[in-house]
Each structure stands twice: as C-alpha cells, then as structure tokens.
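Usage

Read records sequentially. Each one opens with the input sequence:
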Amino acid sequence: MFMRLKLTMLSLLLIFTLSGCSLLWPVVDDPTPKVTGSLAGHSSGSFMPLVLPASGEGVRLRTAYLLDHASRYLVPYVLSIEKTEGIAREVLLQLIDSPENSAALVGTEFRLPFPSATAILGLTIRDQIAIVDFSDEFLNFQDATHERLAVDALLYTLTEFDNIDQVELRVAGKPVTTLPSGLSLPSPFSRADRPLNLEISPTVLDLSVGTRVKLYFSAVGPAGELIYFVPVTRQILPQNDPLAAVVLELIQGPASGSDLCADLPANTELRSVKLEDGVVYVDFSSDLIAYGGGTAAENAMLGALILSLTDIPGVNSVKITINGQTPILPEGTDISQPVLRPLFINPFIL
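and closes with the structure output:
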C-alpha cells in the first residue's frame, strides 16, 4: 500500500543531496504563485504536492506512470512503496484503479491506469524481460486511448527497473498479441516499440522519416493544485543538431489543444547551443525571462529546459546564459553554475 508520510527536514535535505543539483527549492511566500503573460495556465498551483513522497524505514521511492488529470497523457510520478522482495509487483498493484490507491494520490489530480478489479496472476523477470500475467479485467479499457495508456504505463513503469528492458503481456495465462482495439502488440515489446506520449508535427508527411525529440511541458489540473511535467515524444522533420531541435521545439510550445503549458516565451531567440564534456551551454535572448514573473513560472521554464536537454544521451547538466551573460532570474534563482537533472521528474524539485 502507499505510505502517506510526512516529510521531515532530514528527508528534504536527503533529496537535495542525492540530486546533486546546484539549485535549492526557492522560498515561496504564496503557496499558489500566479503566472501571467505568455505562460498563462498556472493561475494557481504549486510544484509541491500536498503529500510529498518520502523514503524511510521499510519504504522505497519508485517512479511509476500515471494518467494525467484529463486521461490524455502518461505522467511519471514518484511513489512511496513498501520494501518487499517482489517490489516490481508491488508497484504495479498501486496502478490498479481502486478507492485505496486513488486516495493515496490526493491533491495530484492523477488517475490510475489499470482497470478496476484487475488482479496480477504472475510476474517473472528473466533475461531482462518481465512476463506479466493479468486477470481478464485488465482488458476492460474504456476506449482506445485508455488501452494505449494502460499498456504504456505497464511498459514504462516496469522498464524503470534496471533489470527490465522488455515486457511480455499475458492475460489469464495467454500471451496478448492483439489488443481489444485490434492493434497488434509485439511479444515482448520495448520502449522503442511504443514512444511515450507520441505526437506528430504537422510538417511531417512521411512517418517513416524524421527526428524524434523528447520534450517536457508543464501542466496543472482544473483544481489548480499540483503543477507537474508531462514528457512528450514529438516527431519532427530530420534535424542535424538535436540540441537546437529540442530548444526550438520548446520555444514553439505544446501542440494546440493539448492543455499543456508553453513554458518558454514564444518570442525567445536561441542564440547558440553546444555540448562540451557533458554540459550543454545554451544562450538565449533576454525574451527568455519575459514569463510574467512568479516562482511557478520560473521553475516551469527551468524545468522544461533542464529535463528536455538532459534527456539527450551524453548530456549531464545545462548552463543557461542570456546574451552571453549569466543572469539572476527575476525570482532570484541562481543559475551561475550548470544545473544537473533533478533526481525525479515529478514531484519536480530543482
């Protein structure tokens, strides 16, 4: 079961120490900082959840993939899981739609991906392949979108474990190679087979060619509580410079109608970007900081850049400058040193 633990100061310091980040969480006087201007969308909310997952005696932190508030995207989120010999099975149990599991997500507006009454009949891991056997209830998807998200939640949650690269899905002991929607499913399947939250740029006419970039955009549910990041895999025209491609796509912003937020002002100019010894040096015009002020907006801008760029192989940290100079950002965040990727994506603590 989920462990709803209060976070002590020691736990908070441990998270910062493990992350190795050069930035600490800014002090926020207003628990629901407002964002205005080009980043409208966070009229309320905070990156800090009501219940912050914390490790302790008998508890581990594990990343699982949940449905966003609108059941349109998968969102990585850290859960507190009891230490057991079969911890992978325990994590999957927390993804089943039930009153108990839903109650543990209070304040997040996330939803659980696996249909209610689903049971796990078996889980074995062999040669980097997890073979998962569910009861028939697993296939009770609401629609094709729910089907896609539930299968991807299974895949991405399990492949967070170092000893799992692929997943074989079984229901009532039989391998599933065709889903209820009629779509085929490889057996086993991997992340390469099912890109996370895939979207196709309107400029791409031939799906067999192009470049796929991983982008992170912030979002908040209608209750305006937790602000979180959604990873999106966007297929764009072929690119020679993956670093520039990621930054330019972030500036372009999320797809129309996605309900995701534009975290970088649309008129921001990318002046230069390069990779040296694992550090991305990226220089912008001063428009980068025209996000209307507010701690939430500042963290959304930084989070989108740092998460997206450090998702590229070989990138460990990001050094941001404006017109060639290191700025102090409007809310006082110090970015004088390269910023490492946070320990977790959500909850986002920089």
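Summary fields computed downstream for this record:
- The two ends are 28 Å apart (CA to CA).
- Residues 1-41 have pLDDT under 50 and may be disordered.
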